[in-house]
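FORM 12-B: Structure-to-Sequence Request
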């Protein structure tokens, strides 16, 4: 844990600041329906495969995992890839703030420089930011691109810090995923706040007890950041 007083806060977007109005289970069910096939795996199966693949984007992650699950179940992997593509087809504007998120951003923005580090591409994520009206809340936004690594690789965190002229010891990252947000931030030398009541990168609700990366700080709701004292304050 850094002894330096943070001046920069980096945020994840999905399931940290905002969420789709439809659950991940509902979106997956709709993807199967769109492909005209009976569901043959759940979001929990996806979660089981996430740590086993190296992906360059959320779509690549879904394609690899869905194909692997299909192969595991004796189905054509191409069917899994079709479901992954169908899963992607949802309105990025059909979102809402997590409770307390808007107020937290307003409060924190008065005291800290804010940045956003997301594993989503600009074509998907910018409409969300526009719909929420928070583009200007962030001094820098790092989107996923086809030619760049995504969280938990430290590269997107380094890109955000470079844009802000900040060192890792000056920053805190806030996100809902142990596997991508906490592990990635720590790999970049940044202390992490884990939103325990959020969802992980597969879309599953995080367990109250966990294994893996150990975050420096834990919150159960982003609403806890609407007013000081903040978890990282002495």
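FORM 12-B RESPONSE
SEQUENCE OUT:
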């Amino acid at each position: 844990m850094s002894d330096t007083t943070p001046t920069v806060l980096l945020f994840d977007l999905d399931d940290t600041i905002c969420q789709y109005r439809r659950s991940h289970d509902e979106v997956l069910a709709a993807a199967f329906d769109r492909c005209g096939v009976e569901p043959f795996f759940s979001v929990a199966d996806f979660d089981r495969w996430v740590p086993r693949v190296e992906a360059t984007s959320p779509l690549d992650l879904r394609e690899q995992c869905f194909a692997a699950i299909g192969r595991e179940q004796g189905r054509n992997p191409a069917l899994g890839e079709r479901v992954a593509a169908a899963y992607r087809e949802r309105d990025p504007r059909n979102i809402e703030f997590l409770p307390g998120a808007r107020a937290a951003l307003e409060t924190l923005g008065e005291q800290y420089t804010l940045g956003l580090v997301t594993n989503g591409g600009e074509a998907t994520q910018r409409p969300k930011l526009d719909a929420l009206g928070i583009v200007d809340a962030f001094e820098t936004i790092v989107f996923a691109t086809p030619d760049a690594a995504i969280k938990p690789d430290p590269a997107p965190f380094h890109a955000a810090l470079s844009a802000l002229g900040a060192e890792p010891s000056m920053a805190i990252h806030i996100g809902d995923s142990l596997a991508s947000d906490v592990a990635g931030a720590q790999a970049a030398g940044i202390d992490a706040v884990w939103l325990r009541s959020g969802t992980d990168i597969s879309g599953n609700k995080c367990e109250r007890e966990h294994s893996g990366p150990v975050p420096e700080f834990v919150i159960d709701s982003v609403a806890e950041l609407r007013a000081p004292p903040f978890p990282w304050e002495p």
